[in-house]
Amino acid sequence: MDETSGLRAARALTPIDDGRRRLVVAGAAGLALGAAAPLGALAQAQAYPARPVKMIVSFPAGGVTDLSLRRIAERFQQLYGQTMVIENRPGRGVASAAVAQSQPDGYTVGIIGRSQLILYHLLRGGLPYHPVDSFTWISALMGSWFGIYVKADSPWRSMADVIQAARARPGALRYGTAFGHGGLAHAPMEELERKAGISMTHIPFRGDPDSLLQLARGEIEFTIAAGSGIPFVQDGRLRLVAWMNPTRNPKWPDVPTLRELGFPYEVAAVVGVGGPKGMNPAHVGFLENAFRTILAERETQDFLEGIYQRPDFMGSAAFTEWARRQLPIEKEIVDRFNLADGAGGSPPPR
To answer: What is the pLDDT of residues 111-151, one digit of tens each?
Structure first.
């Protein structure tokens, strides 16, 4: 399907609202270009994308974020006739730096969100780019269901059991997260430790697959992971003891949330797409609307929910404003737990 056909298809879509969906499909051409757009901008938008678009992903291949983006990239090609190439670059700030330092021609984008906001404060501003101003914030895409997993043969059958074991052996329990030292899952666990009066050892990993495999092998005692952990539960290797989301997951209604257990700490992971500063607004509008259209499709939503992801779209303006509001919030978290430069008792990510 060529771009013009893809835009027609986007216009033909109707809003989805079955009690669970929050996405509304707006007119594709109207959002991307605007009625008063100059003829030059219109011509550029109609010619874009003229070659493959590279999506740099800060997680290893095989995790739920990677799988979600590959599904979105596949649909992008079907609708708009151009390939979206997924390039995995895990590591501390590697992907964000690559995006920020690329040409703003619309052909290099990548995953951006809380990770580089946190890292900016962890390194006391020592990044080669500004975590907000060096990017064009195109759109937020989705969030995840995060759970706390233990081995299936572990004597711990609940989060209360884990806390009791940590209280009996201060510092002995090792837990993994996929977002590194000071990351999305680390800070909530620091909060839980303080409230519960326990001490545990944080082991950071580059992604969920690594932490889950280490847990299955017995190298750590538990881990916080997204839906990547569910297959391990289904095949009998791991046990899910709590959700780190505000509500229970309807597919696992017997598993409580940390909030229900008296610990109101959650993992809030916004997965979004951005490019380098200075992108052509017409290109931004095209990509923003493309992602909106893809996420509004029932097939995409069903796929994401099947791997414990959820569509959570924000357009470029709202996503940019979110980032500006979130940056000082991350500083407060880093300062509160003395996490900067590897402080706080946990090793930096490998």
So the answer is: 999 888 988 998 988 899 999 999 999 999 999 999 999 99
Range of the domain at 158: 147-267
CA distances to 162, 177, 223 from 148, in Å: 10, 10, 6
Q: Which residues contact 105 (CB under 8 A, 6 or more apart)?
A: 279, 280, 283
Instruction: Tell me how many domains the chain contains.
Output: 2
Alpha-carbon gap, residue 177 to 167, rounded angstroms: 20
List, for residues 23-34, the tens digit of each pLDDT value.
Answer: 433 333 333 434
Residues in Cβ contact with 78 at an 8 Å cutoff, skipping those fewer than 6 apart: 1
Return d(Cα 174, Cα 185) in angstroms, integer.
Answer: 14
Residue ending a domain, choose from 249, 267, 285: 267
341 confidence band (pLDDT: 50, 70, 90): low
Q: Are residues 253 and 153 in the same domain?
A: yes
Q: Residue 339's pLDDT is what?
A: 85
